[in-house]
Amino acid sequence: xxxxxxxxxxxxxxxxxxxxxxxxxxxxxxxxxxxxxxxxxxxxxxxxxxxxxxxxxxxxxxxxxxxxxxxxxxxxxxxxxxxxxxxxxxxxxxxxxxxxxxxxxxxxxxxxxxxxxxxxxxxxxxxxxxxxxxxxxxxxxxxxxxxxxxxxxxxx
Length: 156
Description:
Elements: H1 3-10, E1 28-31, E2 34-37, E3 43-44, E4 47-48, H2 63-85, E5 91-102, H3 110-125, E6 132-138, E7 147-155
Parallel strand pairs: 5-6
Antiparallel strand pairs: 1-2, 2-7, 3-4, 5-7
């Protein structure tokens, strides 16, 4: 078992199969020593567990729920990386995380939501998981997903 696979097992996480693209693109592409992933939604078994806007209040996805969804989206991004590299052990650095949060107009906690992805990546890769990041609030995401995460990863 690889080092990253062992760490994922310790965390109780299994890398899923890569979700089929919802359009005319690929889940990940290699350029030089970098992998760029497409934006990944928090699919589990091909389904979104939650939909809607993130915020405080009735009918909204709570920030804590959205944070957990950001972790799932990051895991799906790792699946895309693994699909082009063959093994996550080839990852030398998570370079950049871009996270999008479908936000209620009054919600300003996007960084806390995307911490779900960031903290997960550090848990998996240690110091190689420390990265630059953007956390952006948007009006709506594909399929009414609350979050979307994309990665830039270096490898050898």
